[in-house]
Specification:
By secondary structure, the protein is mostly helical. It contains 4 helices and no strands.
């Protein structure tokens, strides 16, 4: 996953398509993590017990699962976002070429 915004900026300069792909996967990972956290709040305490350590371990588990979900594209959110962004990019490319002749 993305280690920082500087890494994403560097990748965007060298390979814009890869940068979009990484950003979309990162978004899917964050979204999945939020879903898992919300669902985890409804689970009874039991797997990790109670307390701060339990909260940390549970969050680490949710982050790991969310990362795996994003890498496999299990939710499909990253793919939909990428397709949408590519569609917007095509619209911008098409409209910028037609603007001068009107």
């Amino acid at each position: 996953m993305i280690k920082g915004i500087a890494e994403l900026h560097h990748i965007r300069e060298t390979n814009p398509a890869k940068a979009v792909d990484l950003a979309c996967r990162e978004f899917e990972s964050i979204f999945a993590h939020q879903l898992l956290k919300t669902m985890g709040e409804s689970m009874p305490d039991g797997l990790f017990g109670e307390g701060l350590a339990s909260d940390i371990y549970q969050d680490m588990l949710f982050q790991s699962i969310a990362r795996s979900m994003a890498e496999t594209g299990a939710l499909g959110i990253g793919d939909m976002l990428r397709q949408h962004m590519q569609g917007l990019n095509m619209q911008e490319d098409g409209s910028s070429g037609q603007g001068g002749g009107r």
